[in-house]
Amino acid sequence: MEFRRMMDTTRRNLLAIVGIGTGMALTGTAVSADSEEDRTEEQARGSERVNDHIEEVIDRLATEEKVSLLHQYQPSIPSVDLDSFRTGTEALHGVAWLGEATVFPQAIGLGSTWDPGLIERVGSAVGDEVRGKHNASSGTVGLNVWSPTVDPLRDPRWGRNEEGYSEDPLLSGAIATAYTDGLTGDDPNYLKTAPVLKHFIGYNNETDRTTTNAEIPPRLLHDYYLPFFRPPIEAGNAVGVMASYNLLNGRPMTVSPFLNRYVRDWAPDGGSVLNVSDAWAPMNLTEAQDYFESKEKARASALTAGLDSFTEHGSDSSTTTEALLGALDAGYLDEADLDEAVGHVLRVRALLGEFLPPSEDPYADLTADVIGRPAHRELARETARKQTVLLKNDPEVLPISEDDSVAVLGPLSDRLFEDWYSGTMPYRNTPEDGVRDRIGAEQVHTAVGADRIALRERDSGKYVTAGVGKGGGVLGLSDTDAPNVQLFETVQWTETAWTLRATANDRYVTVDGDQLINSSERPAGWEVVQEAFEFVDVDDGVVLRHPSSDRYVAITDGSLHATAEQRSDATRFVRDVRHDGIETAIETASDVDVAVVVVGTHPLMGGRETRDRETLAIAPSQRELLARVADAQSQTVLVIESSYPVRVEEEKRLPSILWTSHAGQETGRAVADVLVGDISPGGRLPQTWPRSVEQLPDITEYNIAETGMTYRYGQANPLYAFGHGLSYSSFEYDDLRVSPRGPLESGATATISVRVTNTGSMAADEVVQFYTTRHQSGTTHPDRVLRGFDRVHLAPGESTTVECAIDHEAFSVWDVTRRKRIVERASHSVLVGAASDDIRLRGSLRVNGERIPPRDLSEETRAVDADDWSWSEVELLDRSRMDGTVVGMTDGSWISFADVDLRHKPTEATVSVARSEPTSTTIELRHGSRSGRLFGRTDVPSTGDVYEYTELSIPVSGMTGNRQDLCLVVRGGTVRVNTIRLE
């Protein structure tokens, strides 16, 4: 459970910088003091000097120069000795987009290790390589890294699922804190890199991502969504957040006051927080989101909300600077607003050592030699091993004997792919390579299981012919049947997406301009990959559609072009199967002891950034391959390689199933290590795997308590539960102890301990998981909550005691009645086991706290703090463009307040509302439900604008008693309900 939060606040405040050097540069030395008191005093003086220096720099900057520092690309300013600076190096699981670098498993794989100590080492290696590239490029590679992504994995259809760590905030927070701990380095005074967390907050869908309104009620916001972001910032590791594209409760996150209200409040030093926009997001404020009428008002609102850096128009900062200068002229901003944001930027740059002489840079020795160093390659292999999850092993086919003959089959058996935020792998060890290297080439038999086809034009009978050589050539037609240049290996990745790899040069067919060329080393491209094609059946053959260009393939001047807008204009082809991939795979599998079938998803097709999945199933041809191999070979092992949970229809028929993320350059060796039992798999699922897409709500439904999503809210009958993962060994849990025996008091810590024994015959890892579930409560609460975990390694027969410490405050929940965190007096069941659905021991714990009192509606109460509502009929919206949340209500919708104290017998209710429509609308106050006894009603006039509020006085009668439920019902048109008060 314990993970190091070593980045103390001294470094965040630059407390070790002790003087101003020549000109505008600072000289830094390590602080030495004879006592902690002297050290603290010296650090405070150092911090003050740094702040004085930054203020001096700001004072010397012209207004235009200040504004220039608020864009992603910041120019050099020689007059104050500022170098150019760029925010945003991608480093999600290795350095991305900057050439070769060590590629570690995808973030979802890092999460499945449940091993923060390991992930800290991964983060450190990635940080070293960022610094190495920075130093080798004379600073053009930036040190502000936009990593990690900590959005909750609440829905497995999210296109960017592979970028997150978990559906649980505790696990995600531990992994994210460890990764950023490594990224920031171990120097007590300066940062190796400056991580920014993605994407704050309420971002889990790609479809309409810039206009989706993520409706998150206050309790879920505080108890679920915010805790994913808080730990790395509170630990002093992450220096800020990237504001997400979406709207949250009606307001774009680019202008959310939460950037200041929470992010800076969490940070040990809020002045050292650098919040950035997502790419092009500032433009959405006046375009797709249509939230502001002018770019000046939009940029000013973002800046005052807490955004410090605008990411738009690439390196061209003119739109940003012109808008901010215009906002100054219009009075939307003043110079102090600029100074504050510039101060945030400069403090983070100072933390990165910008004001140090090069000779004193603690990371100057990190040169290009660190990139891909042997230690990083071994760490990549270790991480890829530890993230594998054994989903099933009954009967036990795994581990495979070294003496077995093995067929390694499937479209992912002989290739590795990079995702959008991956670096370029310096080498690729595939599953086929790994097994062959491990047990010997003579025992390994292979088949991709994909058809090789020839395409013949229906009318002329000519064959599509590819070019030879690495550059390939434009696909054309030939009269001669020449298989060496006319065969294409076809692999299906989704229901509609296929790739064609030319056997002429082992390159993929892509589209350049509009010409089809066999020149691509691997599928790639933004939104829809250029190498994806769809075979569309027609009566007399097939036509090819190119989804990326939304064009069909037609023959022009003897060559293939993606130019036809209509299917009727496309060229008809006959697809001749020259080599039946599945039949070959069956023959190969039938002649060996064990078949290993590697199937899954392509990280750039199906689900990815800009595209959510509609299904959980793997591609039909892959399912057919798996089913038919399993029919022919009872000893079949399924290896799933995917970026997210998938649905395997054949799951019940297969004895053994192993999951891995797209795990980078060492995937093959790592998979082989597990298959042959060099190590026992110890990864655990960091998110629930549903049985089918039918179990899932609309992907834009963010109220997971209402929809029952994630293990916390009882996702029904999953295929594999949160925390699931099997082992080649077995473990016994006993001697559960929970202290204190009496109630846990404020300021105290509960300790749960359990003895775990390896009762099997193989050394293995076990991930011990501690959950609690709360009994009766004054609020709705999760079914169970992960409270701690520990991954332990035990030899056969070895025992260890695992402890979980839980602070009293960890039991706090958000009390909507008083808008604060409170710890309720309650009894909790303690659940200890190997997964959320594999509980081995149970205990109990009493937590002392307070009771939530009856609601006092004599004080003004926000409608959004209601206890219940007709969720599908209401919408959470913005009270104003700057702050606040209201409830948008329509005809028949309702909100209710539970346990209201009506003993003072109120005679009047005051409701604050806004509505722009002139139609007739009525508000009713009723007892218990929308059809309950009527207390009072009033008509709602138009206020002329949705942001113009008026207070309605409603005479009421019959309100009396304690702990009564009060229901507010709307009849007629639409209205925004802001507050209610009883008098």
UniProtKB/TrEMBL annotation:
Q: Which InterPro entries would you find in this protein's record?
A: Actin-crosslinking (IPR008999), BXL (IPR044993), CBM6 (IPR005084), Cellulose-bd_IV (IPR006584), Fn3-like (IPR026891), Galactose-bd-like_sf (IPR008979), GH (IPR017853), Glyco_hydro_3_C (IPR002772)
Swiss-Prot/TrEMBL GO biological process terms: arabinan catabolic process; xylan catabolic process
Q: Which domain of life is it from?
A: Archaea
As one GO molecular function, the record gives: carbohydrate binding
Gene3D superfamilies linked: 2.60.120.380, Galactose-binding domain-like (2.60.120.260), Glycoside hydrolase family 3 C-terminal domain (3.40.50.1700), Glycoside hydrolase, family 3, N-terminal domain (3.20.20.300), Immunoglobulins (2.60.40.10)
Domain Cellulose binding type IV positions: 857-983
Record keywords: Oxidoreductase included?
no
Enumerate the spans annotated as Fibronectin type III-like domain: 766-836
Keyword Hydrolase carried by entry: yes
Enumerate the transmembrane spans. Answer: none
Q: Which UniProt keywords apply?
A: Hydrolase, Plasmid, Signal
Q: Which family does it belong to?
A: Belongs to the glycosyl hydrolase 3 family.
The protein in question is named: Glycoside hydrolase family 3 C-terminal domain-containing protein
Which source organism? Halocatena salina
